[in-house]
């Protein structure tokens, strides 16, 4: 248990959730195109119907749900209120919630972001968040420290699948030739050292990036692997990216599941098929 909260650390909770429900994270991304495909208006009302339908379909079945904060924020205070409901109702149904915010800043601003998403008192507090470390890994310390105190997790961007990513992430440091991405992996490893069964500082590594040359052997934390399905990656691609770290990989998809809406049963069935497909593809 985490001191002072009675909460099992996120890494251990993730291991249990994956063992029970399978290795899959489904993004709740209320993109205007998806709302329109579901026959919903692109407004706060359509957002609410879309997001809560996704929660009804998935929260009792999938290990991790990943709401993308930006799509909720785009609708102002009403959208943020919907996001609060998504977080609360998903957790009540048994899913872990990874809030995709990709925040990264310095000093008191980073502390404020940390309190918004990781403090027990916040209505936006999730089980874990995504963070951007490109102001320096050390700039994330307020979030890292608060997550540790509250038993929550973080996923730090390391080697992302967007075409602009390599400009920064594959650049080499002056400390002996490590890439920026490798430095992020090494920093995560240091934070996770000694954690059992798994540390709570994860990395975001795209499922579509191919062979990276990165050494993940000491990370001892989870890997969020976006890109399964609509972005073109298959479960087999995970072997290429992660090698012998597959047991710690959490594949992520969004559109490949949500496009089957607006029916609850159809969305849930698509998620279950994805879980089965990934398990079959990764079976030894």
What would your notes on this structure say?
Helix 3 (about 45-60) crosses helix 12, helix 6 runs parallel beside helix 7 and helix 10 crosses helix 12 (about 265-280). Strand 4 (about 130), helix 7 (about 140-150) and strand 5 form a beta-alpha-beta unit. Strands 1-2-3-4-5-6-7-8 form an 8-stranded parallel β-barrel, surrounded by 7 helices. It has helices spanning about 10-20, 30-35, 45-60, 70-75, 75-90, 105-120, 140-150, 165-170, 180-190, 235-240, 255-260, 265-280; strands spanning about 25-30, 65, 95-105, 130, 155-160, 200-205, 225, 250-255. It has a single domain, classed as Aldolase class I (TIM Barrel, Alpha-Beta Barrel), CATH 3.20.20. The mean pLDDT is about 95. By secondary structure, it is α/β, with parallel strands linked by helices. The two termini are about 35 Å apart.
SSE blueprint:
Layout lengths: L9 H12 L3 E4 L3 H6 L6 H15 L5 E4 L1 H5 L2 H17 L3 E8 L3 H12 L9 E4 L9 H10 L2 E7 L6 H4 L10 H13 L8 E5 L17 E4 L8 H8 L6 E5 L1 H4 L5 H19 L2
Parallel strand pairs: 1-2, 1-8, 2-3, 3-4, 4-5, 5-6, 6-7, 7-8
Whole-number total of structural domains: 1
Could you tell me how far the N terminus lies from the C terminus, measured between alpha carbons in angstroms?
33 Å
Strand order in the largest sheet: 1-2-3-4-5-6-7-8
Extract low-pLDDT stretches. none
- Oligomeric category: single chain
What is the arithmetic mean of pLDDT? 95
Task: Supply the helix-strand structural class.
Answer: alpha/beta
- Please state the overall shape, judged from the principal axes of the Cα atoms: globular
What is the share of helical residues? 40-55%
The succession of helices and strands, N to C, reads HEHHEHHEHEHEHHEEHEHH
At the first level of CATH, what is the class? Alpha Beta
Largest sheet: 8 strands, parallel, barrel
Total helices: the number is: 12
The count of DSSP E runs of length 2 or more, i.e. the number of strands, is 8
Strand proportion, as a percent range, falls in: 5-15%
CATH-level-2 architecture = Alpha-Beta Barrel
- What is the assigned CATH homologous superfamily? Aldolase class I
Q: Could you please say which CATH topology applies here?
A: TIM Barrel
Q: How many whole angstroms does the radius of gyration measure? A: 18 Å
Pathway: Pyrimidine metabolism; UMP biosynthesis via de novo pathway; UMP from orotate: step 2/2
Family: Belongs to the OMP decarboxylase family. Type 2 subfamily.
Protein name: Orotidine 5'-phosphate decarboxylase
Enzyme class: lyase
